[in-house]
Structure formats: C-alpha cells, structure tokens
Amino acid sequence: MIVGVPREKTAGERRVALVPDLVPKLKQAGLDVCVEAGAGTAAGFADALFADKGARIEQAVLAAADVILKVQPPTGPEIEQFKEGAVVIGFLQPYTPEAAITKLAGRKITAFAMELIPRISRAQSMDVLSAMSTVAGYKAVLMAAAQLPKFFPLLMTAAGTVTPARVFIIGAGVAGLQAIGTAKRLGAVVEAYDTRPAVREQVESLGGKFVELALETKDAEAKTGYAKAQSEEFYQKQREMMLTRIAAADVVITTALVPGKKAPVLITEEMVRAMRPGSIIVDLAAEQGGNCALTEPGQDVVRHGVLIIGPNNLASTVPFHASQMYARTVTNYLHHLLKDGRINLDLTDDLTRGPLVTHQGEIVHEVVKAAMAGP
Ligand code: NAD
C-alpha cells in the first residue's frame, strides 16, 4: 500500500502531514511512503531527510497513493487526482459550507476528519486538537509579548524598577493552560477564568491566579469535559464581572469555545474602550467568530488604542514542531486503521466510525450530513 504525502497548497500553510522520523515506523508496518518533492521544506524538513529515512520523493503523489495524509482539507483539483476508493486522513473542516465532502463521496474516497477524533483515553495520542491548541496557546503569548510596549517580567535595574505585565486569560482549556504557562515563564502576573470550575487547580498549578466570578457554574461542564453553552443572560453577567479584570490587564488572551457553537462574545466594544491604550487582545477564538466583538479574523486591528489580534492558523507559524505533533497524531491514527499492512475498517469501533465522513460513495457522518442539509 502506498502512503502519499503531498505538499500543502493552501496559502499560508507551512505544515506537512508527515515528518522524516515517522517514516521508518510506517515502513515497518509494510507501507511504501511517497512524499511530494518540497512537501516538508517550509516546516524545515528537506526532501533528503525523508529520503534518508526510506521515503520515495516524487513530483506528484496523489494519483498513485492508497492512503493520503493531509493537513488542510483537500482542494477540488486535488480530489480529482485521488485514486477512486483511496483513503484520506487530515483536517476536513466538515462543517464549513465550502467543504469538499460531496466531491470526496463522489470519488468514493474513504475520508477521515482529524478534528472529529473522539477525545477518549485510548485516542489521546491521536488528539490533534489538543496538539494544535498547545501550539496556538504558546504562540499567542509570544505575539502579545512581541507587540506590547512593555516588558513582561518584573525587573529591578539601576534605571529603576519595571512592574510586570498583567495577563488575563479567558478560557483555560488546552490553549489557555499553555498560554498561562508561557506567560508565567516570561514573568507576567497571570490571571485566568473558565466557566468549568474543575480547571481552577490546573490554573493554580501553573502559577496562575484563578479569578472568582459570582456566577452559577455548577452545570457548566458537559460529560465530555467540554464547556456547555450558557444563556445570553449568563454571558451578560460574565461580561459585567470581567470588566475590571479586563480593564486592568495589559494583555487579554481569549480561548473560550463551546463545541459546535459560535464562540461566545465575552468582550464588547465598551470593554475594549475601558482598556488602556497600548494593551493587546489576542483572540484565539477568531476562527469561530471571536470572543471579542471587534475581532477581525486573520487581521490585526487597533480599536480605541487597543491592538486586537485575530489570528488564523497559528499552528502553521510554528511549522516544525506543529508538523511533528500533527504527524504523530495522524500516523497513530493510521496505525489504528491498519491490520497486516492493509486498511481494515471496523465500523463498530467508535474510534474508526467517529471521524469517518465519507465511505463507499456516501456521506456517512450523521452530524455532517445534517449540517449539509441546512437548518
Ligand atoms: P475548547 O477549545 O472547546 O474550549 C476552550 C475553553 O474555553 C474550555 O476550557 C472551556 O471551558 C472554556 N470556555 C467556554 N465558554 C467559556 C466562557 N463563557 N468563559 C470562560 N471560558 C469558557 O476546549 P479544549 O481546550 O479543547 O478542551 C477542554 C477540556 O476538554 C480539557 O480541559 C479537558 O478537560 C477536556 N479534554 C479531554 C480530552 C480527553 O482525551 N479526554 C482531550 C482534550 C481535552
């Protein structure tokens, strides 16, 4: 079976779905690994490194591959090159209207969406969302530190004492916790808030201060470990209660998400106005609509003297390690699907069935199908 790894063609994407160190394990599993020339260059993995580990370097890999490992969703022209019946594993953005899902079904592709891997214990090593959130949380802090007109740490110098920056992190999931750790390491005073009370201990173990808001959050966590959506009245109260924290912060990093919903708006224009000029908001929820009302996805904007950064695809800005982590999760998933060097689908297994979007010419994921049918 041939595993094909194409060069990602989406503008701005610097990651690659496989790194050289993982080639030998695929070969040991009886697979032939074919990497498109230049596929890893932008991430720091030259063709020769792949070849040294036993991969074949080809000018085009899609037409011959039985399994295709991707980062970004395949484009229309890419899908047209896929061999009928091939398997593709990668981010598919299956809920976006422009998704290529129908085309994948039309070509009888068996397509697995990495973002739909269930977050269960045995799939932890395949949890790509956590891996990429780790990168984003780290990079968000560095972006803020690079643009803030202040130091992060407390400094006592002959030229006077510098007070540390105050960083407020909203949402202490995977990205938020990584942001807390990174901001602490840079010496900032870090506060964080999350609607799930269970994260208090995690915030404190990283040296952050968990902000207490007098909000009823007993019921804020779903069985899956994710946040539940709250009423607009709740969000209104939360905004009022966070106002003083936000106004006092030099940097606010927002990561608050509720699965399957648009991100809640937790910072209004009035709240931005209350911040000191020169302060920074990094809105990691930008791609899901943003936690700040003034965020423009993919843009840096200055509003009322506050720089609001709405990054898209932050993981791609740390392409070496993001590729290493991504490749680890995607190859672990591929190994899960293999038996004796061949793809062997057990459709009764949640880990196989959960991320499966198209198979044998059909869209087989019920939620994706319902989303495509519209409201
Ligand atoms: P996420 O990206 O969906 O959300 C980020 C954070 O935003 C969450 O912590 C959420 O509680 C918070 N949030 C939502 N609404 C908010 C609001 N109004 N105000 C403040 N914060 C708000 O989630 P995530 O970071 O991917 O994961 C969240 C949790 O899921 C983890 O901490 C963990 O408990 C669980 N998880 C489990 C596994 C597993 O394998 N079992 C893997 C990853 C994550």
What's a concise summary of this model?
The protein is built from 12 helices and 19 strands. It has helices at 23-28, 47-52, 76-81, 101-106, 128-147, 174-185, 200-205, 232-248, 269-273, 319-337, 350-353, 366-373, and strands at residues 2-5, 32-36, 56-58, 67-69, 87-90, 110-113, 155-157, 160-162, 166-170, 189-193, 209-210, 251-254, 280-283, 300-303, 306-309, 338-339, 342-343, 356-359, 362-363.
Please describe the structure with a list of short key phrases separated by commas or semicolons.
alpha/beta; 12 helices; binds nicotinamide-adenine-dinucleotide; 375 residues; 19 strands; globular; eight-stranded mixed beta sheet
How many helices? 12
| Morphology call | globular
Overall average residue pLDDT: 95
- Backbone CA Rg: 22 Å
Terminal residue distance: 41 Å
What class, by secondary structure content? alpha/beta
Please estimate the helix content: 25-40%
Strand order of the biggest β-sheet: 3-2-1-4-5-6-18-19
Strand content: 15-25%
| Strands, count | 19
List the helices and strands and how they pair.
Layout: E1 2-5, H1 23-28, E2 32-36, H2 47-52, E3 56-58, E4 67-69, H3 76-81, E5 87-90, H4 101-106, E6 110-113, H5 128-147, E7 155-157, E8 160-162, E9 166-170, H6 174-185, E10 189-193, H7 200-205, E11 209-210, H8 232-248, E12 251-254, H9 269-273, E13 280-283, E14 300-303, E15 306-309, H10 319-337, E16 338-339, E17 342-343, H11 350-353, E18 356-359, E19 362-363, H12 366-373
Parallel strand pairs: 1-2, 1-4, 2-3, 4-5, 5-6, 9-10, 9-12, 10-11, 12-13, 13-15
Antiparallel strand pairs: 6-18, 7-8, 14-15, 16-17, 18-19
Helix pairs in contact: 5-6, 5-10
Bound molecules: nicotinamide-adenine-dinucleotide (NAD).
Residues 119, 124, 127, 129-130, 133, 170-176, 193-196, 225-227, 238, 255-259, 264, 266 line the site of nicotinamide-adenine-dinucleotide (NAD).
